[in-house]
Write a structure and sequence with these properties.
about 290 residues; about 70% helix; mainly alpha; 14 helices
Length: about 290
Amino acid sequence: MGPAAYADQAHAINARAVDFDFTTVPMHYIPGETMATHIINVMHLVLPEGERAMAQTLAEALPLIEDERLREEVRGFIGQESMHANSHEKARRQLERLGLEVGPMVEGVAWLIDRVLGDHGLTGRAKHEWLCERLALFAGMEHYTAVIGEWLLTNDKLDAKGMHPAMLDLIRWHGAEEVEHRNVVYDAYMYVDGGYGRKARQALIASSGLLVLFVISGGYLFHKDPSRNKGRFWPLQLASASVRGVVPSLTTFFTEIPRYLRPGFHPSQLGPKDNALRYLAQSPAARAADA
């Protein structure tokens, strides 16, 4: 990717100040949808741990990137991911006040990510190769977060279900920024390495890993849910929510692979960012911060 790659990109990525009020959020903030609620919980309790590792990996790659526009995008991406982690932490504290024991799970995921995706103290060629592997993995993951982000912006099922407005704003604001910065990790990988074999291998790992993460973490949260009215047999609840469109379809982690691995693919081919930018301009939390 040459220095002129961003010449036609006028949109700059920047972290936004937001102010969420979660004090009235109930345990099941999607009424009547226990498992759907916990799948959304995975998005803002577990995924931020991966986002921290992603931001750290991009920070390691930054010295290798000479394209000033891409450097700007990477810095903006890191700032946005930091804001995501802080905002989701506030939601986590509210759920813990309601009795949902999430600390051990989040700490376990953070430990695992550090053990698996840390820099391991490598040097020289091995350090560079491991950096490329992580960039390829995170590029694959960001494809799914962008697709899910667009789903969050366009899906009306959550509105119809009466999802708590603060939580709905949280996940749509996050989803909108995922759509906004969807190309950054991909372009960083293509700049630093760009190998198709590595990209394909890590895309398959990303898709299967995210699916397993959602299912296992969602099941864990269901079991830790202290509510008496949470229902039974969470796998059936999960399948039902997926089929009814209350959560993203689990088949997404399979159906998106051919598109991502198509030769010549670029995240810009996912479509315009209009929905994302429109929502970011009117997000209640962003407007509250401005006020």
